[in-house]
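Hi! If you just cloned this repository, the fastest way to understand the data is to look at a raw example. We've pasted two of them here, unedited. The first protein comes first, obviously.
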Amino acid sequence: MQEPFIRTQMLLGADGLQRLQKARVALFGLGGVGGYTLEALARSGIGQLDLIDNDTISLSNLNRQILATHSTIGMFKVEAARRRVLDINPECTVNTYPIFYTPETADQFDFTQYDYIVDAIDTVTGKLQLVQRAVEAGTPIISCMGTGNKLDAAAFEVTDISKTTMCPLARVMRRELGKRGIRHLKVVYSREEALTPTGWEEEAAALGKRQIPGSVSFVPGAAGLLLAGTVIRDIALPANE
């Protein structure tokens, strides 16, 4: 029994821990949601992680992103993530891709090599492409819906996208996936009605956006931990066993 994961093995069993250590998980997006997903995956002993994000860490990330500290500002998120994972579990194999995932870059990834895929990105086109590729590869995927402009961390739940309500992103995803013949997708989402951020209307207009979403320290993390918990349980405790 490996000392760092004794407490995990006490609940998941030796076979469950071994499944985690043999698993390869792809995590798309390392922001407020994805960073906390990564933290839990690393501390659960996942054996191989593929991390995909083209962004760098900025001052505005400090309020909600676990990878963001003053010492990591300006660093690629995938590099900060790689260092953090290896500092937690040096035995983990970490593959990094400073890439913005879009339909144009999708061919760089073979989804059949993964045991699980986590979608923690923001763009609808990228999310749709991730789900479609995962379904084609027969690889489990879980997708995070909207977390911006929300304050109730307890409102998040894991469900099928067909059962979602109130979430505008889930509504768009449900409609667009339906056009592709995909009716089911495991998601983390919240029924909380989004608030309207204030104070940045001019900045949003200058960027050609309707609004710049607000976010707090605890909401994205709650969603990220729900994503990770689902992945860990699905891998360690398969439903058919």
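Ok, and the second one:
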Amino acid sequence: MSISPNVPSPQESYQYESAGTPRWIGILFGVVIAALAVLGFAGYSTQSGLRQDLAKQQEQNKILTAQLDQANARLAEMKGHLEVTEQKVGMTQAEISKAQSRAESIRKEQQNADQKLSAQLSQAQKENEEKLGAVATEVGGAKKDIEATKNDLEATKTKMASAMGDMNVMSGLIARNRDDLEELKRKGDRNYYEFTLQKSKTPQRVGPVQVSLNKTDPRKSKYTVTVIADDKTIEKKDKTSGEPVQFYVAHMRGAPYELVVFDVGKNQISGYLATPKDTGTAAAPAAAPPAAAPAASKP
């Protein structure tokens, strides 16, 4: 077998390769292989760590998923409560609206009542003012009446002048009628016993004495009476109305009793008996006959 002079032999080729490949390449190749081994181990370790982390992450995901499910359940429950609360709030708002409407109605009613009350108060005030005006007018009239009465009393006092009695003793003030007599009683200077006597033979008690009416003359305003005092009988004949008819009693010689008649009628006289204040009813009245009538009047 012939060998082409352009093709090297195996031995030459080996020698060529051995002579042409540097030694450091083999070292480098070993280093690369070692680096790859280290990298492979590191990758495996990293992959194992990642797997462990992934497992842990998945476990955490499960926990988070469970927690999320619980949160969703709670959220659903809260949503249900919220819907119920919204319904209740809706009902409450309706009730509030109803209450507000009722309150507004009450306010209007109160306002109307206040207006009516104000109108009534105004009317009452107006009526009271009118009544006060009327009362003021009446008071003014009453003042005038009181003033007139006062003037009448002054005139009455002027009329009730002292007079000389039938025993020539100056008497006190003389009453001409019952009004004058009431004024004398108010003054209280003496004791006064009012009477009305009918014509009778039987004497009637007048204060501390007894008096019987014998006769009357209405046309001349004259009368005749008999007075019984201190067991004595004293006739006062043809006396005139308004005249002080005087007589003494045993224990009061200094001040006489006075009998004044201001009305002479047919068989009847009216008047009063005046006695000194300090005697009272101490004078012993004359004994009355068995058929004596009760007293005609009281002091």
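That's it. A detail worth noticing about the second one: The helical segments are 10-20, 23-159, 178-187.
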